[in-house]
């Protein structure tokens, strides 16, 4: 879907199988691995949007996203990622401290 | 990944890739519709009446567009952040 691809540009554009050795499925395996990574990111994007929509869309939807809401969404995604990294780091430190 | 040692022809591989792409596109569309319905119902129909009013329909139409705006903005912000973090590691 175009909107998903518009922001997350992991697409290589075209699928080329002609130049590869006939006795290997590596191209297909690479393709599936990449698609799996893209699907994970798409799922993450939907989750972010879920959380940030509820936090930032406080008014009735208008003719366009106002700048206040836009700023809120951008900050919401960035701060959510900050928090998830912070928690991961802190837990890692604690676990290491127990050794 | 185990393809059971079966060697696929290039034609078959291209077919599988196209099918996977199509299935992912359908799944993404379904997810979008489901989330959009949930968000816009909550936003625009606070007290469900005996029928959808004109203003409720207008609100839902507007909400659908704003939902897509939001999804696009989240997507852009997320991919920008991934690139930033990747640059930090290197």
Automatic annotation (TrEMBL), chain A:
Alphabetical list of SUPFAM superfamilies matching this protein: Tim10-like (SSF144122)
One Gene Ontology term, aspect cellular component: mitochondrial inner membrane
InterPro entries: Tim10-like, Tim10-like_dom_sf
Annotated ranges, domain Tim10-like: 31-93
Keyword Protein biosynthesis: no
Stretches for region Disordered: 1-20
Keywords: Chaperone, Disulfide bond, Membrane, Mitochondrion, Mitochondrion inner membrane, Protein transport, Translocation, Transport
Principal subcellular localization: mitochondrion
Compartment(s) of residence: Mitochondrion inner membrane
Record GO biological process: protein transport
Topology class, membrane: Peripheral membrane protein
Domain notes: The twin CX3C motif contains 4 conserved Cys residues that form 2 disulfide bonds in the mitochondrial intermembrane space.
Physiological role: Mitochondrial intermembrane chaperone that participates in the import and insertion of some multi-pass transmembrane proteins into the mitochondrial inner membrane. Also required for the transfer of beta-barrel precursors from the TOM complex to the sorting and assembly machinery (SAM complex) of the outer membrane. Acts as a chaperone-like protein that protects the hydrophobic precursors from aggregation and guide them through the mitochondrial intermembrane space.
Homology family: Belongs to the small Tim family.
Assembly and interaction partners: Heterohexamer.
Protein name (database record): Mitochondrial import inner membrane translocase subunit
Source organism: Diaphorina citri
TrEMBL record, chain B:
The UniProt record lists the keyword Membrane: yes
Subcellular location: Mitochondrion inner membrane
Residues annotated as signal peptide: none
Record keyword Disulfide bond present: yes
Topological type in the membrane: Peripheral membrane protein
Superkingdom to which the source organism belongs: Eukaryota
A Pfam family reported for this protein in Swiss-Prot or TrEMBL: zf-Tim10_DDP
GO cellular component, one term: mitochondrial intermembrane space chaperone complex
Keyword set, alphabetical order: Chaperone, Disulfide bond, Membrane, Metal-binding, Mitochondrion, Mitochondrion inner membrane, Protein transport, Translocation, Transport, Zinc
Main location: mitochondrion
InterPro entries: Tim10-like, Tim10-like_dom_sf
Domain spans labelled Tim10-like: 19-79
GO molecular function terms listed in the Swiss-Prot or TrEMBL record: metal ion binding
Gene Ontology biological process: protein insertion into mitochondrial inner membrane; protein transport
Gene3D superfamilies, sorted: Mitochondrial import inner membrane translocase subunit tim13 like domains
Function: Mitochondrial intermembrane chaperone that participates in the import and insertion of some multi-pass transmembrane proteins into the mitochondrial inner membrane. Also required for the transfer of beta-barrel precursors from the TOM complex to the sorting and assembly machinery (SAM complex) of the outer membrane. Acts as a chaperone-like protein that protects the hydrophobic precursors from aggregation and guide them through the mitochondrial intermembrane space.
Subunit and partners: Heterohexamer.
Similarity comment text for this entry: Belongs to the small Tim family.
UniProt comment concerning the protein's domains: The twin CX3C motif contains 4 conserved Cys residues that form 2 disulfide bonds in the mitochondrial intermembrane space.
Name listed for the protein in its UniProt record: Mitochondrial import inner membrane translocase subunit
GN (gene name): LOC103508799
């Amino acid at each position: 879907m175009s909107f998903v691809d518009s922001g997350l540009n992991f697409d290589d554009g075209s699928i080329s199988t002609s130049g590869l050795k006939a006795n290997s499925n590596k191209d297909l395996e690479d393709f599936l691995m990449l698609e799996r990574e893209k699907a994970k990111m798409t799922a993450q994007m939907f989750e972010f949007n879920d959380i940030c929509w509820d936090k930032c869309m406080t008014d009735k939807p208008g003719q366009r996203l106002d700048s206040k809401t836009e700023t809120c969404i951008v900050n919401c995604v960035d701060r959510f990622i900050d928090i998830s990294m912070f928690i991961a780091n802190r837990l890692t430190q604690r676990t290491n401290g127990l050794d | 990944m185990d393809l059971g040692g079966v060697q696929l022809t290039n034609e078959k591989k291209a077919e599988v890739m196209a099918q996977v792409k199509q299935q992912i596109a359908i799944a993404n569309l379904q997810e979008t519709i489901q989330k959009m319905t949930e968000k816009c119902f909550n936003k625009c129909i606070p007290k469900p009446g005996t029928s959808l009013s004109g203003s409720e329909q207008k609100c839902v139409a507007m909400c659908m567009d704003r939902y897509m705006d939001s999804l696009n903005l989240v997507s852009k912000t997320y991919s920008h952040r991934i690139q930033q973090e990747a640059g930090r590691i290197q």
